[in-house]
Structures are given as C-alpha cells and as structure tokens.
Amino acid sequence: LVSSTTLNDLLLRKDMCSSSCGIQLRYKISQVQQWLRAEGLQQSGALEELEPLVQAAQLLQVKKVTEEDVQAICSLCTVLTPQQAVKILQAYPLAVGLEEHVSSRFISIVERQLQDQYGEGPGQLLVNTSHLFPVHLPFTASPLHLDELHVPDTLNVPFL
C-alpha cells in the first residue's frame, strides 16, 4: 500500500519529481528496508514490493543528459514500466540554477530504448493500490500463561 500509493503520487504530482525529492524518498525507503531486515522480514515479499519505488527514486537522482545516461536509465528501470519511467522524466521540472530540464529528445530516446528492451507491455501507468499481500510475522509464544497474570483493580478493567 505504501509503495503503490507513493509511486502513484509521484506519477501524478509534478512537484514530487525532483532530485531533492528523490533523495528524501530513497532515504525513507532505506529506513523501511532496514526495519524489515531488523525484524527478519526479508522473505515476506515487502522488499520486492518496494523495488518500483526504489527505482523511481533512483531515476529522479540519475543524470539525464548524455547517451550514457540513457543506458544507465535503461539498465536501472527493470521493474518500472516504460510508461512510468517516461512519465517521471516528463514531470521532471526545471529548478532554477540547480537541475537541468530533461529534453524531449532525451525522453523519446529513453522511451524507444525501454520499449525495445522490455517490450510495449500492457501500458500500465498507475499501480493498483487495492492489491494487498499477506505478511507473515513470526510468532513467539509467551512463557507466561494468561491465568498467571494479575491485573490490578486500579486499572478498572473488571472484564479481564
């Protein structure tokens, strides 16, 4: 849900398509990835669900000028559809003095190469936010039995 909603927002809002937003997004994703690893949830499938968002954040940060940059973008965008990568590049704004605007020629070269490399695909731009997958959390039984617990009367929970 987090990955698909954030990616859809990125695709729909031009104000999120900048290098600085890419840096912030990549940092926040890395925090989630670290938490998943710390909790032993590498095999849950959540890391794979974050991959399109990781690639979108990296796409915002990569240089977008030369022919070598086209190759870097094409090797980077393995999970994003060509339509999604092109939409992010088209939304990339011109920030005064900080970043160069991505030329339409550059975008068309990237689009053509991505379509040659990965095929036309279904043309999906937005990600389905209603798709949820189960996360299996490890269960550790408590060494205490419930009948051994004493709930103080001051808590005012007589039903326990």
TrEMBL record:
Cross-referenced Pfam families: DIL
GO molecular function, one term: GTPase binding
Annotated protein name in UniProt: MYO5B protein
Ranges of residues in domain Dilute: 1-116
